[in-house]
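Subject: sequence -> structure tokens, single chain

Hey, anyone have a minute? Need the predicted structure for the following. Not urgent.
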Amino acid sequence: MNTYFSLRLSGLLLLTALLAGACHSAKSTRVDYTQPDATRDKKIRWQSKRTYTFEGSGVAVSNQFAGARLNDFRRENDSTFTALIKPENAPINNSAWYAFKIWGPQPKAVTVNLVYQDGSHRYHPKISRDGRGWQALPAAAYQADTAQHVAQMRLDIGPDTLWVAGQEIFGARDFQRELAPFLALPFVRQRAIGESKQGRAIFKMDIGEEKEPRRLVAIISRQHPPEVTGTYALLGFLRTICGESDLARQFRREFGVVAIPLMNPDGVAEGHWRHNTGGIDLNRDWLYFNQPETRVARDEFLKIKANPAQQLFMFLDFHSTQRDIFYTMKPELETVPPHFSEQWLAEIQRRLPDYQVRERASGTKSPVSKSWFYLTFGVPSVTFEIGDDTPRESVDRLARVAAEVMMEQLLDYVAGSE
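Reply:
Had a minute. Here:
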């Protein structure tokens, strides 16, 4: 640890202890999500949207934008500040999201301490000058004490706004911008299928040459607000399916894709760590469907089940976690196509020899999306997780190869079954 941050962190640890006993060491209470009450609405701890100013310091900070997370901002001296970050409610899986803007009338170096309640530091800071182009804060300007669950960063601020966040901010407007090229294609259609708890539209994309395709793949993403790397994988996956290769063209003639890219628009807009605005982890509500977002998705996909002319062949749910991993179903659980996940991952590994495919198989006890899709449709169901710090070029390469292998193997299966 360099001398600058060593001295700063020693003061921060004392400050953390004084702020609140639970700020950095809160323990989560285990929740039994198989009980009906587990995913009914829980009380939300709303952040106060405001701009903080400090007389004489020349520093201003704001959380008045979509995706922000900042619960308090305090001055320690003219160049040192502490940001308090709290989740929307607790207990909660640790995805300690933070996002704020900071500026001042003159160029100035400031130190910002990050202190958490009901969670601990997870994300290496990203910075942006316009809210769209992002880069990681240089290592020399950042230090985290993982044992004490705190972090510090040194920021060069000035009249131009500096955005700081746990990951690149990627909200509803960013989805609109990134999906616009897809929606301009003649074989892609989009429509609203329902609303979130706060009344935001939930959109579905249909990809395929046929308006009523016989064979389908289902995809969802962004049940958890901060999981931006999963979104990047989703976009790369869809970009490959919508591409101009002979493989993509043939796949779109034989298969349709039904995708819900943004499952939790409220949580993303409110800067939540994990939950929707009902205070619930949506990926634990695929048993009782107490939340409107999961009900909207369930009802849309059940239309496939109710249509004897259609058949689902695969389900994918894009997420982020500490490292890349594929959560699959146990191999003894029979699927149609049979043994598809194992063959899919094996071929991805063969084509990416310098990449390590990690797989963890599980059963159907947990009320997550992949369990519901397997139990409802009997298809290969996979949670596609991308690491927080996976290089963005690697994310795109993995997504492209994964989509190509899926298309090839599904087409081969159909050809062999006819």
